[in-house]
Amino acid sequence: MTMIARTFYITALLFHCVSMCQSFTPPPPQPALATNLASDLKYQSDTTVGEMSSIESPLPVRKSKVSKPLVEEITSLDELKWFLEEDERPVVIKFYAKWCKKCQKLGLQFNRLAMQMGDRILDQQLIHGDVRFAAIEFTPQAQGFITEQLQIQGVPDMQMYVGSHKLLEAGSSVKNIRTELAILENMNHEDVLKRAEEADDGVLANLIEESFYDSPSFLNEEW
Q1: Interior CA angle at 194 toward 82 and 187, to 5°?
Q2: Which of 28, 72, 167, 168 is the most exposed place for a label (fewest CB within 10 A)?
Q3: CA distance to 11, 14, 25, 140, 192, per residue, from 18 (Å)
Q4: Which pTM was predicted?
Q5: What is the pLDDT of residues 35-44, one digit of tens each?
Q6: Model confidence over 171-191: pLDDT tens digits?
């Protein structure tokens, strides 16, 4: 091969290599966002529905406060006597019958008053009121106790006591009870007791006195 031919061959080979290098373009690098997105998708796909719900904090459940008035159910003279004497607060007593429609209507007002001013359970806690409330149901067993001993001839009826002294005969009027309680609000216990003694008709006081003399403990007492 002559010098000229060799020079021509080398020049052509170099030109071919340069052309090949210019035509090849490397692919651009993948952004980091794509890699992170892929890992995030993989993490979500590997997490079950139950696992995702356990990660989220549950919403607090708001409990409603349960409240109800405390009304003592009394069935006999002895129960009434002990209930009145165990506390010096005024007592409001409701006489009623379950079959009486008027008693049912009065019972709603009576319970509302007991909830406002009496002992009550509020959110599982005992709240003491200024007044205590009791109820005596008219039944065949309690008929003699109500009509003969307490001399109550009809229901519904309400009475207010301070100790064994009857302060008020209110009939079926809750308004009369509220009026009397408003009067007692600014009085001390001595004045309230004096007011009850003056208003007392003596029915319950006489019953309690008679039951004392008829009790076995009194009959067995040595003098």
Answers
A1: 100
A2: 28
A3: 11, 6, 13, 122, 120
A4: 0.66
A5: 443 444 444 4
A6: 999 999 999 999 999 999 999
